[in-house]
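Submission checklist for the structure archive. All mandatory fields must be present; incomplete records are returned to the submitter.

[x] Identifier: Poly(Hydroxyalcanoate) granule associated protein (Phasin)
[x] Organism: Olsenella porci
[x] Residue count: 115
[x] Sequence attached
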Amino acid sequence: MAAIDDLTEGARKAFLLGVGAVAMGAEKTQGVVNDLVKKGEMTVEQGKAINEELHRKVSEAAADSSDAALKEKLRGMTPEERAAWVKKAQQYADDLDAETVEVEVDETDDEHAKA
């Protein structure tokens, strides 16, 4: 089971490292876009479009980084360790699926529905 804990910690660190690097690059790029908009070299709409594209690429890069770290860690495990990790991950997923979700009801909406 130590391999499972190592996987979790290793994957978490690799994921955070990848996200941090991408986020820093995205932050600098966003600053450049904002400067271009301020200088009038780019319209606000063009700036928004670039920023939306940037956010999408950051999300994709973070997912790719996480997937690569997980695959690499799994590659270093024995088949038995991988099977134990999958079983534990499935239990986590089942536990999350079973959690009760509380929903707040706005009573003013309820009163409007009755009217």
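[x] Structure attached
Curator remark: The longest helix spans residues 2-39. The chain has a mean pLDDT of 76.
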